[in-house]
Inverse folding.
């Protein structure tokens, strides 16, 4: 797309977005989301530069102590606790721009479009002195996994990141212990350092596809999202040493169905699978450093072979994932800086049903890399850069985009934003692809739909305004 | 499958019944029964340190701070008469329901902690400049020495805060706030002050350049 053409399209959208922003600026200053209402903090207290989802040291503590800090009437006197709205809402208003209108991975032909929709509704906070919750309900106007004409198909709404925590903080003269347990619906939802796919910094999403998806390790991919229930326990000693174990399992029916959502991508059922995380955390002056390792062994039924939703009879694929992670933060107003790194190594053993259906090889290796940096000035003006890369075994069935079956991938996502008010963010984000399906320049190849397209033909931009209230 | 569901259900119930009220380890900021000691451990220590010595200079050291000053500031946070950006972002929420008893207990707790030893790097080039301002002032601009009110070792007294060992970044930001409050009153003739009880400090801050503010803040940080 020529720059001049881009600018003329951007102009109209900016007017639209500013209209939304000026409406929102007139809102009451205290009208901020659920946890802020409970704690009385401004966003910047718990989020780096005031921008979710990256957590500061205080934000990590709030989560690790079970979302309990702040004003709360006793659970049993719930009726006296309705002096503030118990839910928060997130709206996103955006216009997307695609570098081409040819078929994407799933056969849709995206067209640049403007949309405004409710992205999420949040509830949660203190339930008792030791128990709290984080509940998110998300609606998707479009679903990247289905098609309708030349657009993505209609989406659905469902339970998003949801967690209940029990936590205790024991302080003695010589030691400081936080220990707790949780029940949640997504592997890595418990993360407090934003080093996992669930909470990494790419917090704003494209509406209508267009952003091609890199091959992801099982632990980072859709299979672990909101179709599982996990029970975990953790300990954090002297704000330095962190250890966590959990077990996850898909819930197709029953009480915990309320915390799960189906995926139109097809049922992947996770049998009881262990997850762990170990981390070292160090704070000095305005600096914070975290180094850690996390991983899981995922036992999955029906991976991509299209069996019925609650059919546990399929043979089992095993995903052994281990990831090394790091976080660095510098937080001292007016400067807010953070950087994250994650390297995930996956050894996948594909089950017999999968061979020929969703994978060619009995085993595949995938090494996935994520890195991001964020700088925010005065909690108002910010820039971010994300990198996502993958290298792994060639598998022509698993990776049909490529003639060779290569999963190799490099994509970059710079963005800039302005937060005129702590509830509002206006920004532009652009994703460009330098390597896709093993190809850097020439035809991506593989299936005929992609013949003649190179990685940069998938580039996508988005101008957006978001509001949380 | 069934077993897992049972285990999950039982675990959830056990968690729910585990502790509905845990007053000794509560982080509830709207329960007058929670003591100052508990609040210090469960809430304040996250940013200010259990011993009143904070790590990130965003948050001031509270150790050995004057009891009267701590009480006055908490009251100002509660009443919103101290309204600098950091006060609004953090302390307005924390202090909004503090009772007089909790404020007294918290002030007692932190005033009794051992004096802070600040290990933050202090630029040696600034120390003699800062020392001179602290002891002799900048008389050419009408600023007397700080030690007259804050004590010969900047230990503070009564409503006058201790400054020794305080983070330079925090002190510098406060001096800048007092300076802008001076401008607010004298130039703009407004009274929308960020630190409304700092009339004396407005004059001091007005008489010091940014570099002098930084020098005296750095010197005070190095004091034990």
């Amino acid at each position: 797309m020529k720059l001049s053409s881009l600018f003329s399209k951007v102009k109209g959208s900016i007017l639209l977005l500013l209209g939304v922003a000026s409406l929102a600026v007139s809102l009451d200053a205290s009208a901020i989301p659920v946890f802020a209402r409970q704690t009385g903090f401004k966003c910047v207290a718990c989020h780096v530069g005031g921008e979710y989802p990256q957590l500061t040291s205080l934000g990590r503590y709030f989560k690790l102590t079970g979302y309990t800090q702040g004003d709360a009437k006793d659970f049993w006197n719930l009726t006296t606790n309705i002096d503030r709205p118990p839910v928060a809402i997130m709206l996103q208003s955006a216009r997307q721009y695609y570098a081409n209108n040819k078929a994407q991975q799933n056969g849709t032909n995206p067209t640049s479009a403007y949309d405004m929709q409710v992205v999420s509704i949040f509830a949660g906070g203190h339930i008792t002195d030791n128990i709290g919750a984080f509940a998110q309900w998300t609606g998707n106007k479009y679903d990247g996994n289905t098609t309708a004409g030349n657009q993505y198909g209609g989406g659905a709404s469902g339970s998003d990141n949801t967690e209940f925590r029990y936590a205790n903080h024991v302080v003695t003269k010589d030691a400081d212990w936080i220990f707790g347990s949780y029940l949640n619906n997504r592997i890595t939802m418990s993360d407090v350092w934003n080093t996992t796919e669930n909470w990494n910094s790419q917090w704003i999403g494209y509406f209508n596809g267009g952003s091609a998806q890199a091959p992801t390790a099982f632990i980072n991919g859709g299979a672990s999202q909101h179709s599982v229930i996990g029970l975990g326990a953790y300990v954090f000693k002297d704000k330095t040493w962190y250890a966590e174990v959990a077990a996850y399992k898909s819930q197709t029916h029953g009480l915990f169905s309320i915390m799960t959502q189906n995926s139109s991508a097809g049922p992947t059922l996770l049998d009881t699978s262990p997850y762990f995380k170990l981390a070292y955390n160090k704070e000095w002056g305005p600096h914070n450093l975290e180094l850690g390792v996390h991983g899981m062994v995922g036992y999955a039924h029906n991976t991509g072979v299209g069996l019925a939703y609650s059919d546990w009879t399929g043979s089992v694929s095993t995903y052994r994932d281990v990831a090394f992670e790091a976080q660095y933060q510098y937080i001292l107003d007016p400067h807010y800086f953070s950087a994250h790194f994650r390297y995930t190594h996956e050894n996948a053993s594909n089950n017999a049903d999968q061979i020929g259906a969703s994978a060619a090889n009995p085993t595949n290796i995938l090494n996935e890399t994520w890195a991001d940096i964020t700088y925010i000035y005065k909690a108002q003006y910010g820039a971010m850069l994300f990198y996502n890369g993958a290298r792994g075994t060639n598998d022509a069935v698993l990776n049909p985009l490529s003639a060779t079956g290569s999963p190799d991938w490099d994509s970059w996502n710079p963005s800039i934003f302005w937060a005129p008010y702590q509830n509002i963010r206006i920004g532009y984000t652009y994703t460009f692809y330098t390597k896709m399906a093993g190809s850097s320049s020439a035809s991506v190849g593989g299936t005929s739909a992609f013949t003649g397209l190179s990685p940069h033909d998938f580039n996508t931009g988005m101008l957006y305004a978001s509001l949380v209230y | 499958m069934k077993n897992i569901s049972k285990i999950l259900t039982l675990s959830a119930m056990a968690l729910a019944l585990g502790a509905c009220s845990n007053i000794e380890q509560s982080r509830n900021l709207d329960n007058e029964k929670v003591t100052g000691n508990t609040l210090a451990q469960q809430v304040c220590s996250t940013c200010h340190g259990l011993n009143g010595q904070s790590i990130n200079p965003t948050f001031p050291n509270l150790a050995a701070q004057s009891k009267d000053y701590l009480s006055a500031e908490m009251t100002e946070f509660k009443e919103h008469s101290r309204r600098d950006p950091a006060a609004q972002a953090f302390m307005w929420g924390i202090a909004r329901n503090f009772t007089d008893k909790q404020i007294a207990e918290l002030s007692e707790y932190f005033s009794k902690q051992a004096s802070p030893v600040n290990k933050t790097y202090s630029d040696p080039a600034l120390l003699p400049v800062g020392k001179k301002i602290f002891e002799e002032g900048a008389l050419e601009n009408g600023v007397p020495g700080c030690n007259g009110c804050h004590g010969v070792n900047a230990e503070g007294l009564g409503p006058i805060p201790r400054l020794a060992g305080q983070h330079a970044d925090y002190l510098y930001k406060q001096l800048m706030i007092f300076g802008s409050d001076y401008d607010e009153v004298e130039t703009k003739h407004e009274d929308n002050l960020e630190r409304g009880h700092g009339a004396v400090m407005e004059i001091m801050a007005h008489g010091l350049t940014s570099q002098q503010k930084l020098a005296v803040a750095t010197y005070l940080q190095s004091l034990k």
